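Researcher: We plan to redesign the surface later, but first we want a full-length starting point. Tokens attached.
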């Protein structure tokens, strides 16, 4: 399999170039579908049943799904995504070979490179006569970068795949370092704090009938969040937007708003929006309860409510994930590529693999391209990473199938 992958270096790079040169910003539905149409015949040639799940129900392009079943070994779910953050209006549209070591382009690392790594690993298994006796499902989502809503619909294919599978393998680029992989990713949930005060002339602030006003109450709540929650290990919580005054309008869809207020009027309204990133579902629920309790301890003549939105669940660092990392690290060492350690969860954002955590026995992410500058016009990837990562993935899946 190693020699097979080495023999396909240029063909694999050419396939990646063609994929990158198709704009597939999440909201460019036709572009996302074109990337799927490019890859579907490649999976069919390996013996997969392949179909495209339409995303109209959740206002996205949809997902590529492929499956092959032929043995008694573990069921593996392989995860990729077709979309990028670069919409048609972006100036960053084309694949470039920077030199013999680096390539540049929208999605070379996040994560069209990972898609091709997955495909090349499967080709190697096919060439070795192993693939037809394995149980593998591929889900390449069309909305990883900007998920469709409701999540119950947009992530259903992933969740159904996870319920079918024993093991999930994500081909995201992790932290860009080939010496690491993700056994854990923090979940991400948005929140909105809405505060009301009693309007009055500022000369009356703090009097029993007027109280503190909405802005003081919002400040109290945020300060208490900071004091009571920042000691939580691997937790971050961030207020990203605050508006307050006599009148406040909040445009949640466009992450904007407007305010009107005067220095001599006690603020009647305040709105704060932010997110929480937690390493486990238990931590997330516990922190939400703490935040809610803080919000309810109001200053005089104020009231406040906090609402938590849909979000990505955590990929919790359970023992099976660490066991899988150990197997992957041994593969890497056997290939002469060195050991692989776990990415610090503080350096790992949310990803589609997290939706599988509740259902599979083992999960590992970060098997994709090594690179840097993701989500920017400076996104680059290492040429050597494509064959190197494909070799590791192929041998990992081969060894897992024999367990």
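Model: Full-length starting sequence:
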């Amino acid at each position: 399999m190693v020699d097979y992958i080495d023999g396909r270096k240029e063909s694999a790079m050419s396939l990646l170039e063609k994929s990158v040169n198709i704009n597939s910003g999440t909201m460019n539905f036709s572009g996302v579908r074109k990337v799927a149409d490019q890859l579907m015949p490649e999976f069919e040639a390996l013996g997969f049943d392949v179909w495209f799940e339409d995303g109209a129900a959740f206002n996205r392009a949809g997902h590529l799904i492929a499956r092959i079943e032929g043995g008694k070994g573990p069921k593996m779910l392989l995860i990729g995504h077709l979309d990028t953050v670069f919409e048609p209006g972006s100036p960053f549209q084309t694949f470039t070979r920077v030199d013999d070591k680096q390539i540049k382009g929208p999605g070379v690392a996040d994560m069209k490179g990972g898609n091709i790594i997955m495909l090349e690993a499967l080709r190697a298994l096919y060439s070795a006569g192993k693939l037809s006796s394995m149980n593998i499902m591929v889900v390449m989502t069309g909305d990883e970068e900007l998920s469709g809503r409701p999540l119950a619909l947009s992530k259903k294919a992933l969740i159904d795949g996870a319920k079918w599978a024993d093991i999930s393998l994500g081909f995201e680029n992790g932290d860009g370092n080939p010496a690491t992989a993700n056994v854990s990713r923090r979940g991400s949930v948005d929140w909105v704090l809405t505060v009301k005060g009693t309007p009055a002339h500022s000369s009356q602030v703090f009097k029993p009938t007027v109280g503190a006003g909405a802005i003081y109450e919002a400040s109290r709540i945020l300060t208490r969040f900071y004091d009571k929650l920042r000691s939580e290990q691997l937790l971050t919580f961030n207020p990203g937007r605050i508006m307050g005054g006599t009148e406040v309008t909040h445009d949640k869809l466009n992450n904007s708003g407007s305010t009107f207020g005067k220095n001599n009027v006690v603020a009647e309204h305040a709105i704060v929006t932010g997110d929480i990133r937690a390493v486990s579902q238990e931590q997330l629920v516990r922190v939400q309860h703490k935040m809610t309790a803080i919000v309810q301890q109001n200053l005089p003549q104020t009231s406040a409510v906090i609402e938590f939105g849909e979000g990505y669940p955590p990929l919790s660092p359970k023992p099976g994930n660490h066991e899988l990392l150990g197997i992957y690290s041994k593969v890497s060492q056997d290939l002469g590529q060195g050991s692989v350690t776990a990415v610090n969860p503080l350096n790992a954002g949310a990803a589609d693999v997290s939706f599988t955590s509740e259902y599979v026995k083992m999960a590992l992410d970060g098997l994709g391209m090594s690179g840097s500058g993701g989500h920017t016009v400076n996104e680059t990837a290492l040429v050597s990473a494509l064959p190197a990562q494909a070799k590791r993935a192929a041998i990992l899946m081969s060894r897992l199938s024999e367990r």
